[in-house]
Specification:
8 helices; 7 strands; alpha/beta; 46% helix; seven-stranded parallel sheet; Rossmann fold
């Protein structure tokens, strides 16, 4: 179905587990050459064993110098770059109203700069290949989600704006950039798995009250959209934020 993706060179940040690992698996199945990224070398090499036709480019993309090395290393090993997926992020931060400066700093490094650092270093390569950029954002960046950390929501909202604004500039070079905003995604080691173990009834009630489809999403629900956005099937799509949340968010205006 996505034969145009065969032999494409893909870099996926934060791809040792969860959503990132599933995205890597999806691109591998589409017969792409995949560069995996993460800070923990042991986890990175374990992920490599699971993903066919993959290689590793270790490093902390929250740091600009390290991000530059990650991109350069991936480009050399892949012998090119066609697709960039920015998946690093975390919703763990101070509770609303309890934020300190360090919380803001950590959240923006994790949820905004981890993407912008890599994108800015990759642009020259992606312009050459007329490539594609996909950022993994969150529904917390699209509207108010009760209980979500303000630092996290603000950083993801900034990421969404970055995607929207840069689509105007990158589009002039034939490069497309989009974001995916997941809702509640369940996978091993996820925040939702921990919440379910801690209080199963309360967590299930939270989902039933807020998600019309009354279930958690899966990493595959995100990777499927990733593959579509990377392919020619979405050739007229850029600057968009794709919400994948089982109907949880309620806004009716266009982003």
């Amino acid at each position: 179905m996505f034969k145009d993706l065969e032999n494409k060179k893909v870099l996926i940040t934060g791809s040792t587990s969860g959503i990132g690992l599933e995205i890597a698996n999806a691109f591998s199945k589409a017969k792409c050459l995949v560069a995996l990224n993460g800070r923990n070398k042991r986890k990175l090499h374990n992920a490599k064993k699971k993903i066919f036709n993959s290689l590793v480019s270790p490093g902390n993309v929250e740091n600009p110098k390290s991000a530059k090395k990650v991109v350069s290393n991936a480009f050399k090993k892949l012998k090119g770059l066609d697709i960039l997926v920015c998946n690093v992020g975390s919703g763990q931060s101070a509770k609303p109203g309890k934020e300190k400066y360090l919380d803001w700093q950590k959240s923006f490094k994790k949820n905004l700069f981890s993407a912008t650092n890599v994108i800015e270093e990759s642009k020259k390569y992606l312009i050459k290949s007329k490539g594609v950029i996909i950022c993994i954002s969150s529904i917390c960046g699209t509207e108010f989600i009760k209980g979500a950390p303000i630092t996290y929501s603000t950083a993801k909202s900034a990421l969404n704006t970055y995607v929207k604004l840069n689509s105007k500039i990158l589009g002039n070079f034939g490069v497309r950039i989009n974001a995916i905003a997941p809702g509640n995604i369940m996978f091993k080691g996820s925040t939702w798995e921990k919440k379910l173990r801690k209080n199963r009834i309360q967590t299930k009630n939270l989902i039933s009250q807020n998600v019309p489809l009354n279930k958690f999403g899966l990493p595959k629900n995100i990777s499927d959209i990733c593959i579509f956005l990377a392919s020619k099937n979405s050739g007229f799509v850029t600057g968009s934020i794709w919400v994948v949340d089982g109907g949880q968010t309620k806004r009716i205006d266009k982003f």
